[in-house]
Each structure stands twice: as C-alpha cells, then as structure tokens.
Design a protein that fits this description.
The complex is a heterodimer.
Chain A lengths: L1 H18 L5 H24 L5 H4 L2 E5 L2 H8 L4 E5 L5 H10 L4 E5 L10 H17 L3 E3 L5 H10 L3 E5 L8 E6 L2 E6 H10 L2 E10 L2 E6 L11 H22 L11
Parallel strand pairs in A: 1-9, 2-5, 2-8, 3-4, 3-5
Antiparallel strand pairs in A: 6-7, 8-9
Helix pairs in contact in A: 1-2, 8-9
Chain B lengths: L2 H9 L6 H14 L11 H11 L2 H14 L10 H4 L2 H19 L1
Helix pairs in contact in B: 1-6, 2-4
Chain lengths: 259, 105
Amino acid sequence: MQFRARVPKQRAIRRILALRPGSTPAQAVKIARHRIDSDLFRLWDDLLLPLPSYAQRLQCTGIEEIQYLDQALAAGNGVILLTLHFGANRPALKHLATLGYPTLSLQDQTSRNPRQGRLGRVLRKRYIEFLRRSYPDVVYVQDPECSLKILRRLRSGGLVHMNLDVLNVKTAVEGAFLGVSWRFPVGVFDLVRLSGCAVVPMLCLTRSAGFQIRFDPMLDVVRAASRDEFVHANLPAFTGVFERQIAAHPEQWRPWTWR
Amino acid sequence: MDLAMSNSGAAGSGAASRETVDRIKRVFVSSLHLNLTEADLAYEQQLDELVGLDSLAVIEFVTAIEKEFGIRIEPELLRLDFVRSLPRLSAYVEDRVAQVRRFSA
C-alpha cells in the first residue's frame, strides 16, 4: 500500500503546488497525505453503504444550510445538486434520500483510467454494480435516455445530482479553474438552460466520526438563449463557488491524484 | 403500465394534421442545426443517430417543440420511445395545443 500510494501522492503534491500558488511544499505534502487517507475512508464507506446498519456505522454529523435546498425546491422547477468529487458524496445522497430528498445521481460507467487492463474493466463493472445496489437511484451517461430521465425528474420538481469536475467529457466547455484551463461538461449547463431548474452547490465532507453535508445558496443563473451565451454568462459563478470549496478543504478533493 | 402509450392514447388518439407533422419536422431540423431538407429527413433514423452521439440533443428538440407550440409536455411522456414516434408525438402536440386553447378561451 505504501508503494502504491506513493505515485498518486507525488502527483497530488505536484498539482497542489501548481494550482495553489500560496502553498509551501510542506503544506502540499500534508494535503496530499490527507487526500490519500480520505480515499481509504471513501472505500470503507462504499463497503458499508449496502449494509442495513450503515446509518449506525456511517453517521451524518451535521447538515448545514438545508434551507437553501428547500428554497430551491419550493420554486417547483427541479433542482440540480452540483458537487465536485469530494469524499462523502455517496453517503450524503443516501442520507438525503432517507430524509425525504430522493436524488437521481448521474454517474459514469466507464473508467477514467485509459490504461486500465481487462481485469480492471471487469472489476470496475462489478464495482459499479455493487454501488448501484447500495444506491439504485442512478442514471448513467451511457444511457441514450439519460438526459430525458434527468429532465423528467426535474420537471417533476425533483432533485438531480451531478459532478462538475468529471474527466470523461464528450462535449466540453473550457474555462479557468484554479488558475488553469479546465474542461467542464456542457451537459450541466444545457440542462440548466433548457429546464429552467435551480442549481444548489453541495459539499459533502468525510469526518472521522462520519460525514457532513453543507449547502451553498442557490446559484444566481443568468438566462440566455444559446449554449455559448449561457456558458459564458454562468461559468465564472459556477466555478467560483467550487474554487472556494477546494480552498477550504483541499485534502478532500479527489482529482488532485487523478491522471 | 406504459404511461407514454396511455397518455398519448388519451391525448393523441387521432392522426395529426399534415401541417403539425411538418412543423415538428421543421423544429427538429432547426433546433438541432441539421443540414437537411424535409425531403431528406428520415425522422426516426436521424433522431437515433443524434441521440447516439449526444443524448442532450433530444431535450434540445423537446424544449424547442414546447416553445414552438406554446405547450408543456408532461414529465411522464419524456421518454425516447414517445419522442421518436412522429405520429404519436404529432397527435399529442395537436391535442395539447387544443387543450391550451380551450383553457385560454
């Protein structure tokens, strides 16, 4: 494990130093170490989630600012819960469902690692199936009906969960993020533009005693007719809120170590 | 129960007029920026190809129909099998337009 963790850790240190100009090497090492630890917590959480007793083992230690979610739902046009890849997204969604906030989660069935072999693909498939059993309210980007299923949920006034920092993006828009150019999935922006739904940023953190959820205020979406205008008008607001999340909790943001 | 079938049966039991079908075809071509004439259009085939490339194309099309006809398609009908059936979609749209007119009269 020590040897295996070294490569992603070195990668994370390099990225943290590049994308967080204020960080010293010592801080980068600390953040990277915590980042690797939080991956282990996340795997452990994944194993616990299908158990009937998961709620006792995996406790939600707090939900902050849930009124922002209630306000967005009250508008009646559906809500996209937008997150980055932080440690506790899956347990948070499951917990929200038990509280009466069932959320359709958009997932990718394929691996983000292009060099994974046949065994990796088989294991990935089984892992996805395992995760689906613990949280069945999912739709996969590979599903041809994916966007219609999302629109259906939003039109019914429901909740949809999407990540903004995905790697496998078929149609992307480029924008500044953490001081460099990033590719964001255009689908998020299209769905918001076409459905008229609300967008509420969510942050789900792993804590030693469980996990914690925090909602940010609903994003002030600027309406525009075309895709380009809409993205141009809204991308800075979308990315700004998530840059602040990463700045506050860099050790829990998973893409530091992604290839 | 197939909601799409049941609702479209209720809403679109008759055949749609040629005018509505043509308008939907025009919306299909214009909303998805297709380089096609109506004569070239094999609707189902084109829709399948587009959805295969990008599933968002279908909601771009659905929302364009809603805007064109001033209607809102019911959530339970937002299904690929319903949208890709031009006769059912056209009949449904015609019935919805008639409903909207009755409500506003």
